[in-house]
């Protein structure tokens, strides 16, 4: 048991609190709204902000933006930086990139290692980037109580009161006889028992018993404590992480660190550490929570119309009930649906019963095997300077809308196989074409011949939109030679 | 009874046979594939040709292209001419335009009037443009027998053997005791009884009785006979048609003829004439037939996969059964659907159970009331010179792909409020811009400033495709001043 002398005041405690947003998920189960390169956390599933934006806003309340750590991978980092650009400066050095997904234990260990280096008293608040939480005050209260238990070296998990006999989650039973802490109506207890995903009968029993909680995947612990417990229960993983720490301190090459990371045991923090530790504690929480694990789970959190439908976008309906209909810019018309899911995106539409929503994963696997581009990314692709949207592709041509943020500029580049035409539709464009530099206003255009060095830039205060028409025998994104780039993308 | 002296040989008979394609339908029940300005007959619902193309090909077998009459309205005539361009010259003078829809009796009377003028012995083969018939030889045989009965002044209808207790059609019972004619296994009989659309119990009885036939809406009669019968049973309508004939012969103004047409009784040929006539006869036919009256009816005619699904386009499915899934260029993913309809078009998607497919009409009415553009036309709009497709619209801009047929040219025109940029993506463009005329090859572009007279033309042998980017405060199609037009569209 931790000594009380290390206990600090709430204010001091929060000075050592480091929210860690786990943002490495692939989110295939929300296809076609999510894509491999555009996972669920980046989606505006409910409300005006995306899930990761909501998560960021939720955790900075109890901390400060520059203490928020983002655990993700190189493929997603750019999109996340774009979405969290409100906190751009604070987050600059706080991205911890996994070279590849090795489950949660290595990812958490890597962040813990960085945090003990920064602050030996660091307390980590680990939250997935793509969950929905409703009730900021209840969340803050749970964090405050859990943090005091973490101070006492507990590994604290947040327990969610079950609302249905769910077979997709692990369950946790608290030892109610021992109260480790109390704050208002909230109490903290040692964990009496972890239960792996149960079958339907067991799940119904747990729901009825009323003393089992869903494992939310949110945790609080001291960075030093979790490293100790990883050393105890996953010694091989710990040695690997230690070695990575040494490589980092020695300024080793990125490749060496990546290679070391790839040898780590891919184990989850739940089964690899929590379920084996004597320090596991639970705080049953009162806020509303959903991991929005599939389209069907939107029912838990989204607001519904009188007939129980969740409707987003331009939808015209006759007599549908308890259905989820997601539109984008196009019109979606539905008649007489019951318990169905319809999701319409610019390049793909999904229709299935809610009861089959889990099988979207299987469908995405099929697409992947067929090499269908729709599994990978959207028609709109985020870039550090803005984004582009493919409006149409055909033999020998491609039409894009290109959006450049104020001050943004694309790399100085050249294409071997295509010419481009740019027409400005909003804002002002600064164009570099060979040795010329000139500005184009709305309604004006320019031509970029094959093998001509060029650059597009937005020198204005307003967002720049251009229509780009590409012509050529090959129009792949990889026909690009970059001479200079503001975002470090010149290496080929 | 007609005198046998008037009977002619089969060959002579066919020289007097005038197929009349009834092509005025609005086809809202096939939305979103059909639109008010793009009805079902123009759709490629099954096979490589559209329904009206199939209909044309079917009827020219027993006749000649220059004897085929097209009954339609001004809004649809252009699209029909485009689709029937294979027979362009033959059909030139054969379009009979109704100023507005007044049901089938006035439309048929108008064509009959024109035909007796051309050929007093004319026999009309009246066929809807948007039905599906399978079995050309069986069709030809039925036409041959029915035409001999028509020679004898019968009003002959084709009876379809029911395959289900349909409540949406009228039924006809032949008087089997009297055989008016015979050809192979086919027989013709007087009509014993017409039955209006029955309820489900009655429909089941008719199906079981086996001696009731569906009224197919296809007829054969002498033009002179049907006019006689209209005079007898719809005297007011007949007087109206006579007056229109006089106006036409006197070379009256279009407006006067239109005004006269609008006063005609809007009655169907079935209830207004056939059901009251003593000359009604029926030939029960052996060809497969469907009026494809709704998405659900595709089941009757379309080929299905093992699970009973009708699938068109880029569709990825897991476990669906007996469903209709229609895609276009985008990916449609379906899981576990049973008896559902999914139709995906570039600007609208429909999802409904087959059992509700009839209610698409109601949904389109809703869209019409809301003034939603999707009820009216497609993103792709047919024009006499080719077509255009809207790729994207936003504040101040619009992007189109414009397709110009070889030899086609747009009007010499000008816009007050928008500039345009054209980039050639396939073929060669001849551009008129003020006093200049120049050619543009693939990958080249030009700018058309506001208030500049311009024209786009395809002087080549291949189809021309350009991308057009419009900029301006107002981008409506009605901002156009036409100076010259090959298709008579210069009047404003």
Low-confidence sequence ranges of chain A: 1-9
The CATH topology name of the largest domain in chain A reads: Spore Coat Polysaccharide Biosynthesis Protein SpsA, Chain A
| Biggest sheet features of chain A | 6 strands, antiparallel
* Oligomer type: homodimer
Number of strands of chain A: 29
Radius of gyration of chain A: 25 Å
Number of helical elements of chain A = 12
The neighbouring-strand order within the major sheet of chain A is: 19-20-21-28-23-26
Q: Give the class of chain A from helix and strand content and strand pairing.
A: alpha+beta
CATH class of the largest domain in chain A: Alpha Beta
Cα shape of chain A: globular
- From the N-terminal CA to the C-terminal CA of chain A, the straight-line distance is 54 Å
What percentage of the residues of chain A does DSSP assign to strands (E)?
A: 25-35%
How many structural domains does the protein architecture of chain A include? 3
Mean of the pLDDT scores of chain A? 91
Largest interface: A-B, 59 and 59 residues
Query: Which architecture of the largest domain in chain A does the CATH hierarchy give at level 2?
Result: Alpha-Beta Complex
């Amino acid at each position: 048991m931790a000594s009380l002398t290390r206990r600090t005041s709430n204010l001091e405690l929060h000075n050592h609190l480091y929210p860690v947003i786990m943002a490495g998920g692939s989110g295939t189960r929300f296809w076609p709204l999510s894509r491999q390169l555009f996972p669920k956390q980046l989606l505006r599933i409910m409300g005006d902000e995306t899930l990761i934006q909501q998560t960021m806003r939720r955790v900075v309340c109890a901390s400060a933006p520059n203490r928020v750590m983002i655990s993700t991978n190189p493929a997603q980092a750019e999109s996340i930086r774009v979405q969290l650009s409100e906190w751009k400066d604070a987050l600059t050095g706080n991205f911890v990139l996994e070279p590849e997904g090795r489950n949660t234990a290595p990812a958490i260990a890597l962040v813990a290692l960085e945090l003990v280096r920064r602050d030996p008293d660091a307390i980590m608040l680990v939250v997935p980037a793509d969950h929905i939480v409703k009730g900021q005050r209840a969340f803050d209260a749970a964090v405050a109580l859990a943090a005091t238990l973490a101070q006492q070296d507990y590994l604290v998990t947040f327990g969610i009161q079950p609302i249905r006999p769910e077979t997709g989650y692990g369950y946790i039973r608290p030892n109610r006889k021992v109260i480790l802490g109390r704050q208002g109506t909230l109490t903290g207890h040692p964990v009496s028992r972890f239960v792996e995903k149960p079958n339907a009968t067991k799940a119904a029993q747990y729901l009825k018993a009323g003393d089992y909680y869903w494992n939310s995947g949110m945790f609080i612990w001291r960075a030093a404590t979790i490293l100790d417990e990883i050393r105890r229960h996953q010694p091989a993983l710990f040695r690997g992480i230690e070695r990575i720490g040494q490589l980092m301190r020695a300024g080793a090459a990125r490749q060496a660190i990546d290679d070391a990371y790839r040898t780590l045991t891919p184990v989850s923090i739940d089964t690899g550490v929590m379920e084996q530790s004597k320090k596991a504690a639970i705080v049953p929480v009162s806020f509303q929570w959903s991991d929005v694990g599939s389209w069907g789970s939107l029912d838990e959190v989204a607001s519904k119309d009188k007939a129980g439908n969740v409707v987003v976008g331009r939808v015209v309906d006759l007599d549908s009930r308890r259905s989820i209909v997601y539109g984008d810019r196009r019109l979606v018309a539905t008649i007489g649906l019951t318990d169905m899911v319809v999701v319409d995106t610019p390049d793909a539409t999904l229709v299935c019963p809610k009861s089959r929503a889990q099988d979207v994963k299987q469908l995405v696997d099929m697409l992947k095997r067929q090499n269908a581009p729709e599994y990978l990314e959207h028609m709109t692709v985020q870039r550090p300077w803005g984004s582009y949207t493919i409006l149409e592709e055909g033999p020998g041509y491609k039409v894009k809308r290109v959006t450049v943020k104020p001050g943004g500029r694309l790399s100085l580049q050249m294409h071997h196989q295509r010419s481009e035409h740019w027409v400005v539709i909003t804002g002002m464009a600064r164009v570099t074409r060979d040795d010329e530099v000139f500005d184009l206003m709305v309604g004006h255009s320019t031509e970029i011949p094959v093998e001509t060095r060029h650059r597009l830039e937005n020198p204005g205060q307003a967002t720049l939109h251009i229509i780009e028409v590409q012509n050529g025998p090959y129009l792949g994104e990889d026909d690009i030679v970059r001479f200079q780039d503001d975002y470090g993308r010149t290496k080929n």
